Amino acid sequence: MIEIPNELLIKLSKADSVVVLTGAGISAESGVKTFRDPDGLWAQFDPMELASIDGFMSNPQRVWSWYQHRVEIIHNVNPNPGHYAIAEMEKLFNHFVLITQNVDRLHHRAGSTNPIELHGNIIENHCFNCKKPFFGETNLPEGQIPRCDECGGLIRPSVVWFGEMLPYDALMKAEDESANCDVFFSIGTSAEVYPAANLPFIAKRNGATVVEVNPNITQISSYVDYRISAPSGEALPLLVEKFKDFLSFSIK
Ligand code: BJW
Ligand code: ZN
User: Fold this and answer.
1) Which ligand is nearest to the CA of 151?
2) Which of 38, 113, 226, 235 is least enclosed by beta carbons within 10 angstroms?
3) How far is the CA of 51 from the centre of ligand 2 (A)?
4) pLDDT for residue 50 is more than 90
5) What is this structure's pTM?
6) Active site residues
7) CATH for 1-32+79-119+167-252, among 3.40.50.720, 3.40.50.1220, 3.10.20.30, 3.50.50.100?
C-alpha cells in the first residue's frame, strides 16, 4: 500500500514552483536498465571503459557498439506510467521544471515539454574532434564507426561521460530552478553522481520541501522531508490522482 502523506498534498496545493529531478529508476519499469542497482549496467560493465573520454580513446569501437546496442533497446521500449504522470504534473502547477539525468528521451515521448537534459541524450551524435553535430547514417556494419564529414573525426553519442563538463546552460538553469522552487522531487536516482546530486541539497538549503520517490534508500534519503518508498510507475500516478482529488475537494 503506497502512502501519499496528506501534508505533502497541502504543500503541493500551495506550491507555486515545482522541480522534478529524475534518474534511471524512472525508466526501469519501461525495461531500461539502471546503472547502480544489483542488475544495473555498472554491475556488468566498467563505467571508465564505456562512459569516459579515456575509454572512448582507448577503444572507440567497443564504446560505439555498446551505445548502438543501448539505442536499439531504447527504440524498442515505451514510456511508463511514471513518465506520463510527470507529464501530467506539468499541467498542475504555475511553474514546473523537469530536470533529467537520463539520456533515453522517454520523458519527451511521454509528452513532457523541454526537460532539462543534464547528461545529454543517446539519440543524437557529434564529432569527437570538432564537436560538429552528425546527422548521417549510424547503422553501419559491426566494427565501423561513422566519421565526421567536416574533419574526418570519429562520431560519438551526445551524452556526458565521467570527467566531462555538463552542458553549461542546462546546469545553470537546473541550479537556479532548484534554488527557487517550493517543492523538489528526486525520483529514481541514487544521487551519487555530481553535480546533479547537489540539486536536492540546493533546493533544501533554499527552503524547499524535498520529496524522494524511490523503492530503495539513497544518499539523500535521511535528508528529505518525505520519502515515498515505491516504484515511480506506481507512486507517481497515485500522487497525481490524489493531488487532483485534493484540489477538486478544496475548491468545492
Ligand atoms: C527506482 C526504480 C523504480 C530502481 N522506481 N526508482 C572521483 C573521480 C572521478 C570523478 C569524480 C570523482 N568524484 C566526483 C567526480 C565527478 C563525477 C562523479 O560524480 N562521480 C561519482 C560517481 C563519484 N561526475 C562527473 O564526472 C560529471 N562531470 C563533472 O563533474 O564535470 C566536472 C569535473 C570534470 C573533471 C573531474 C571532476 C569534475 C559527469 C557525470 C556524467 C555521468 N554520466 C553517466 C553516463 C551518461 C551516458 C550514458 O547513459 O551512458 O550518467 S553515469 C550514469 O550515472 C548516468 C546517469 O545519468 C548517472 C546517474 O545515475 P542514476 O540516474 O542516479 O542511476 P542509478 O543507477 O545510480 O540509480 C537508479 C536509482 O533508481 C536507484 O536509487 C534505484 O533504487 C532506483 N530505482 N527502480 C523508482 N521502478
Ligand atoms: Zn569533426
Assistant:
1) 2
2) 38
3) 20
4) yes
5) 0.97
6) 119
7) 3.40.50.1220
